[in-house]
Design a protein that fits this description.
Shape: globular
Strand content: 35-45%
Order of helices and strands: EHEEHEEEE
Oligomer: single chain
Number of helices: 2
Structural class: alpha+beta
Largest sheet: 7 strands, antiparallel
Number of strands: 7
């Protein structure tokens, strides 16, 4: 398990855009399972939607990408790089995520090269799939 301070040593994201609270499982360059506790005071809930807060799908997708980046950037071959979005394929949102939910984020790396790769992603709440699909990423040098 990796806590948020440990996650900060792997990926460059910071508040308010670091969405992972902890990594529950990780196999370097292959798989990550992480947790994001959805708090009522999350920045997006002020406007999405007042009185009926729902986590935006794009933030779920970003959180899944962050989980994948944790697995990739622990690989010695990719030290000093950033994993950035290259594309999103077939992502579907199958349920709403609201304050108080524990969002489980799973990313399985399907393809990985020096240039980038592809991951299969799934987010669940209480065992129910709320998002799934594939993401493409590009590995770039970090300045």
């Amino acid at each position: 398990m990796i806590d948020q301070e440990g996650i900060k040593k792997i990926i460059p994201h910071r508040d308010p855009f670091l969405f992972l609270d902890e990594v529950l499982e990780c196999e370097v360059a292959k798989y990550t399972k992480a947790l994001w506790r959805i708090r009522e005071d999350l920045f997006c809930f002020k406007g999405h939607f007042p009185g009926n807060p729902i986590l935006p799908g794009v933030l779920i997708t970003e959180a899944l990408a962050q989980a994948g980046a944790v697995a990739i950037l622990q690989d010695e071959r990719f030290k000093g790089r950033l994993a950035v979005f290259g594309g999103i394929d077939g992502v579907r949102y199958r349920g709403m995520v609201v304050p108080g939910d524990d969002l489980i984020l799973e990313t399985e790396i399907l393809r990985l090269s020096a240039m980038g790769g592809k991951g299969k992603v799934k987010a669940t709440v209480n065992g129910k799939v709320v998002c799934e699909g594939e993401i493409l990423f590009v590995l770039v040098k970090q300045d």
